[in-house]
Design brief:
alpha/beta, six-stranded antiparallel beta sheet, globular, transferase, Glyco_hydro_77, carbohydrate metabolism, 4-alpha-glucanotransferase
Amino acid sequence: MNDADIIALAKAAGLVQDWVAANGEPKTVAPEDMRAILEALDLPCGTAEQCAASREKLRQLEDGSNHLPPLVTGVVGQPVKLGHVAALAGGSYRIELEDGAQQSGHFGGDASGGLELPAIDRPGYHRLLAGDQETTLAIAPPRCFGVADALAAVPGLRRDPRLWGLGVQLYSLRRDGDGGIGDFGALAMLARKAARHGAAALAISPVHAMFSADVHRFSPYGPSSRLFLNALHIDPAAVMGAEAHAAALASLGPDTAQRLAQLEQEGLVDWPGAAALKLSLLRRLYERYLQAGNTGEFDAFLREGGDALRDHARFEAIHAARVANGENGDWRSWPDGLRDPRGADVEAFAQQHAQEVGFHAFLQWQAAKGLSSAQKAAREAGMPIGLITDLAVGADSAGSQAWSRQTEIINGLSVGAPPDVMNSKGQSWGIGAFSPVAMKAKGFAAYLEMLRATFAYAGGARIDHVLGLGRLWLVPHGASPEQGAYLTYPMQDLLRLIALESWRHKAIVIGEDLGTVPEGFDRLLADAGLLGIRVLLFQRNQDRFFRPDEWPSSAIATTTTHDLPTIAGWWQGRDIDWRRDLGLLPVGETEGDARHGRERERRELWEVFNEIGCAGGSVPDAAARTAPMEAAIDFIGQTPAPLAMLPIEDALGLPEQPNLPGTIDEHPNWRRRMPHTVDAILDEPDVAARLAILNRSRSPRGVH
């Protein structure tokens, strides 16, 4: 087996051998590393014969080998390219449009340049029949549903698409009776409050399903499944009402209410403690629900959820049983019979543990009701967008989605990041990614069901690491992140499907495009109507910070993100404190270097604040806890961004950030709670004044 064959196969599979690191240094992936990744992609290349067979497999997928793929994407008003399907050349076809109309015609007689259909003027999922073949035509609008479209859909609102919203970590929200974890009830309350202050949107941290039997896993970006919801955000009192809630709580013993009250007072979320109590309470409520006997609405939810819901509930039940028995919870180590979601052993387990499987399906029903109610509350309170959910870049390889979608999600590779200035050894996050080969072969079915789950109960979605639409750094399990490589994805197809689904759900789309962005990528997103993200602290060159009028109108504007210091924390150098204490300063940089650089940056930021009239006078010193907050908020409000997003930590002037990249337990990631309950937090005089700044800077005419 020679290296040239491996490299040729890797190129055909979309692996990138030569790439440029963040510092501009050219890099080349070694053939042996390529081989490990190809094997995980189900493209064997140990021998010349295996290489040839894998190349043929890719060729058939790419050109159809005389067969149409299961799904072809296109854009309204543009010809639809079908590929080299020679068997259909010169033949007739019929298109059955989604609305029942039909179109027919004949293909040209020469397929060497690829067959194509005339432009279709209606978006949707249409059916193409040609000869003995058929496929789905996913015809997308030219761009995603946008902020201006959201405004236009609400009668009586102004038409100036310069809105603002708040960003929150859902688990951090407080309300009386929440048991120590922010829930959908608190979210609905905050949405109403934020709308009264003029907010058009409320962006939330990911609410994907986690592992109910392993409550020590709580990073929202490492979920078990992106198809379902985190049951720990359910408000138990909303399940069957206050009386049933009180009875269920009492049945758990006299100390339970006291323990829950203690958990509510903590400054950090005690995930294991709060989760165990909440799940016990929800289990009692499920038992009471079954005893009541009226399960019609739940039965309808089960039917609508179909195989996907059934699979997730079964996974949760099997996973819990194995963990309870002291066995490995990772499905990849389960007996063969349990590794097959459609197998007889899984079916037998589900029959023997029907109530337990039903409990996990019940949790999904209640979570869906809670999130849906929060979005309804936001819209009824006057928000033209409402909730913006967050789609994580991947799901845990040991989780429900990877188990139930084994043919679409790569087993053996983890999403990560190559070495860079901040992480000299690179990163491997232990989360699985879709296989681009399987995506095409399966008609993008698993990707579409995930998009629909993301949009289902929201007015918008943030796509984490949107660069992954074009390429992902994938690392073989057990290998160093340095032994990974970039795998390219069918970005044009994915953008079209996102646009089509965003219009069908009337939801805006934001792409987290921070980091090393390939040249032209931001233009691709803008053309697709997918908003990028611009962060105040990054909007600068070597000499100065950019003025608001130099910011793009194709991205949202924000003061910071969950992975970055808050404005107060940045001003005080709190992030430098953490990096010093944890040994996370970049190689070659001392604490003194970091603080000297920060002093210069504070001065430069204050200069641009003065220049545009956001602030005046001399630069406040590092100990000033709130001095720059109003100026920073006014600044992002003055940008041409259609949506300015203010993290609630900055609205409150808090110094600590939700997550510190590069740490797990060393920093209280994904645990910090808000200092006040949601019914009062936005009405604090300083906070209300900051929100009023956004109303003024976004539109002199006000929000409505």
